[in-house]
Amino acid sequence: MPFAQALGVHLTEATPHEVRAHLDWAPQHCTAGGVLHGGAVMTLADSAGAICAHLNLPDGASTATTESKTNFFRALREGTLHAVSRPLHVGRTSITVQTELLDDTGRRLGHTTQTQAVLTA
């Protein structure tokens, strides 16, 4: 994922049951006041969730996001943003993934739920 790589997303674990990734806080990823930009947060969540969906696809299929919703609970002003993605539903035509967004202490900063279409030839 070139965009995620350019932003600095790092993948630390990837299985069909759980994907873990992180993004380090950096001033160039922030809004006013040193808060990590929501777009950066959503990029991490979307990337981890898409990898989770991809790992649950049947052979020969691909995927595309059809819906994504993020709830923000608190801001990140330092440290690292961690994402933990797990499948909620793996079906024939769609896969739904939930991603927890956590700070370095494990405090929840938000979560994303996204649905991916299962695209077959």
UniProtKB/TrEMBL annotation:
A single MF term (Gene Ontology): 1,4-dihydroxy-2-naphthoyl-CoA thioesterase activity
GO CC terms: cytosol
Residue ranges constituting the Thioesterase domain according to the UniProt record: 33-107
InterPro entries, per the entry: HotDog_dom_sf, PAAI_dom, Thioestr_dom
UniProt KW keywords: Hydrolase
NCBIfam families: unchar_dom_1 (TIGR00369)
Similarity remark: Belongs to the thioesterase PaaI family.
Designated name of the protein: PaaI family thioesterase
Lineage, top ranks: Bacteria, Bacillati, Actinomycetota, Actinomycetes, Pseudonocardiales
